[in-house]
């Protein structure tokens, strides 16, 4: 490391390899686990990374405590707004379908098309963010998200709401990876970075819970459109605050942008990865509306093509890595047991978390017969426990081993799904459902902070946008796959039940129980992997001297 503090001098830093960074983050030596070795990323890629670390001293802008708090809030709200709208739509979708004349086979598309558009563009947006600067990408995403939220509230038909929700998903993919990159740029390793990641994670269940409550209120009074209007107003103010307080883009990001876009991004890898995610997500989204669509030739072809793209992607990035060229997600990363296991856990925990929310909503409305507002009020414990869990994890993550946090919080979430699997519709809310709602967000929130800290430590400072894209892509894919699989299980179990009327609350409850048991199985699988694969990660989020 060379550090000349003379005015305007250049600071050149040579960053550790991904394996060394992971070892440092876990509190171990620079070589970490000797049993695991990551191959070199190549001279060209390494040189590009070192160049990305060269910033002049005048580019380093210190932010005040007040500014830090505003940045934390903007980043948290950028993820919370999306979850808020998901909560609004979850409650309001029956009324929205009537008002907008949404056909029955498309009734879930305002929800699923958002995840589809977001999931298949996260890696691309993360890569572009690393080149043009996370501030530019984040502000562009906030502005686009605000505009598209207004458009959703003004939609008059099915085509408009689906189109605007898809563009909202793309806007979210602008924000999410760049938000992760901003956290790593603005906050040094330690408590502030940990708390910001925790706030970003806590904003999701908190926003979803508040969205369901206000969505129920608006749907029963002034109209569901006001859920979008309120979100757009909040989004606009967050955009203004972010533009005011976020640090300016370093000079390094303003130079040679077009040439760096051409040479520093693995474009073919992006096309293959995005194509795989787009086709797989489309098939999964179609399944959530009608399982029989899987028999259609077009869906079979898309499913086969998606796995062809996946195989081509693996072969391509392997070639890029051998030649020392930019590789989107180097195959050598998967050789690190901690990285592979945390990705698997994120997939399983988010699949269970999202499915639990959806089927708890079905249970309260379809089985118990509660109104949308009554259902929304029953979700109120979730944002409270989510906020508490994230504050606790953010304050303690650098003091307690990461695998302990993941295991303990996952056990709590497994208990939530278990309680809903054994619940009786006649039971009081306070006897079982209240505890389940309070416990459910804990696992996802604990996993969010630990996973982000671990995954970002695997990528060099110049590729934190890609790191954010990796995490959010895995979590979004987990949500989609989890919802599709639980739907398949619930429908098949209900269809094979002994009840003559398959739409009766009793018949539906049989399928819902099976869905909750599947959520338990997903979290137990992640627990087994955590105990086996994460026991050597140590503490994450440690302050570096």
From TrEMBL:
Transmembrane segments: 69-95, 107-125, 195-218, 224-244, 265-285, 297-317, 338-356, 376-397, 404-423, 514-534
Superkingdom in the source lineage: Eukaryota
Organism: Aureobasidium pullulans
GO cellular component: membrane
Ranges where the Major facilitator superfamily (MFS) profile domain occurs: 71-538
GO molecular-function term, one example from the UniProt record: transmembrane transporter activity
Pfam families xref list: MFS_1
Name the record gives this protein: Integral membrane protein
InterPro entries xref list: MFS, MFS_dom, MFS_trans_sf
Keywords (A to Z) from UniProt: Membrane, Transmembrane, Transmembrane helix
SUPFAM superfamilies xrefs: MFS general substrate transporter (SSF103473)
């Amino acid at each position: 490391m060379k550090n000349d503090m003379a005015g305007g001098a250049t600071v050149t830093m040579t960053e550790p390899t991904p394996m060394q960074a992971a070892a440092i983050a876990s509190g171990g030596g620079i070589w970490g686990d000797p049993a695991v070795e990551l191959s070199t990323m190549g001279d060209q890629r390494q040189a590009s990374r070192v160049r990305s670390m060269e910033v002049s001293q005048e580019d380093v802008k210190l932010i005040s405590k007040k500014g830090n708090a505003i940045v934390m809030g903007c980043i948290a709200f950028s993820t919370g707004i999306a979850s808020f709208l998901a909560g609004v739509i979850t409650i309001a979708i029956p009324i929205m379908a009537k008002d907008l004349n949404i056909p029955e086979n498309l009734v879930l598309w305002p929800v699923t098309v958002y995840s589809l558009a977001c999931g298949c563009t996260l890696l691309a947006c993360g890569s572009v963010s690393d080149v043009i600067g996370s501030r530019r990408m984040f502000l562009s995403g906030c502005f686009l998200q605000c505009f598209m939220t207004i458009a959703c509230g003004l939609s008059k038909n099915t085509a408009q709401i689906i189109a605007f929700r898809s563009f909202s998903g793309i806007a979210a993919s602008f924000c999410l990876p760049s938000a992760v990159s901003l956290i790593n740029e603005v906050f040094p390793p330690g408590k502030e970075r940990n708390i910001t990641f925790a706030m970003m994670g806590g904003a999701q269940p908190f926003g979803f819970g508040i969205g369901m409550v206000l969505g129920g209120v608006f749907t029963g009074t002034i109209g569901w459109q006001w859920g979008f209007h309120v979100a757009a107003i909040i989004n606009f103010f967050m955009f203004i605050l972010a533009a005011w307080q976020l640090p300016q883009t370093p000079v390094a990001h303003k130079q040679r942008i077009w040439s760096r876009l051409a040479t520093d991004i693995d474009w073919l890898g992006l096309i293959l990865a995005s194509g795989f995610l787009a086709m797989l997500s489309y098939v999964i989204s179609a399944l959530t509306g009608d399982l029989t669509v899987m028999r259609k030739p077009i869906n079979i072809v898309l499913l086969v093509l998606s796995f062809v793209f996946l195989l081509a992607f693996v072969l391509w990035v392997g070639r890029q890595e051998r030649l020392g060229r930019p590789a989107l997600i180097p195959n050598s990363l998967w050789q690190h047991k901690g990285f592979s296991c945390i990705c698997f856990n994120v997939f399983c925990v988010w699949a269970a978390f999202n499915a639990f929310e959806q089927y708890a909503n079905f249970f309260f409305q379809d089985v118990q017969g509660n109104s949308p507002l009554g259902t929304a009020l029953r979700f109120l414990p979730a944002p409270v426990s989510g906020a508490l869990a994230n504050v606790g994890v953010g304050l303690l993550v650098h003091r307690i081993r990461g695998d302990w946090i993941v295991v303990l919080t996952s056990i709590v979430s497994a208990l939530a799904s278990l309680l809903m699997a054994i619940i009786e519709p006649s039971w009081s809310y306070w006897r079982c459902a209240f505890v389940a709602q309070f416990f459910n967000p804990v696992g996802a929130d604990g996993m969010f902070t630990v996973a982000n800290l671990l995954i970002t430590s695997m990528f060099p400072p110049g590729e934190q946008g890609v790191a954010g894209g990796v995490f959010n892509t895995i979590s979004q894919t987990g949500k989609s796959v989890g919802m599709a699989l639980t739907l398949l299980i619930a429908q098949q179990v209900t269809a094979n039940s002994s009840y003559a009327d398959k739409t009766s609350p009793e018949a539906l409850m049989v399928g819902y129980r099976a869905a909750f048991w599947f959520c338990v199985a997903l979290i137990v699988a992640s627990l087994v992997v955590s105990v086996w694969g994460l026991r050597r990660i140590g503490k994450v989020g440690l302050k570096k001297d």
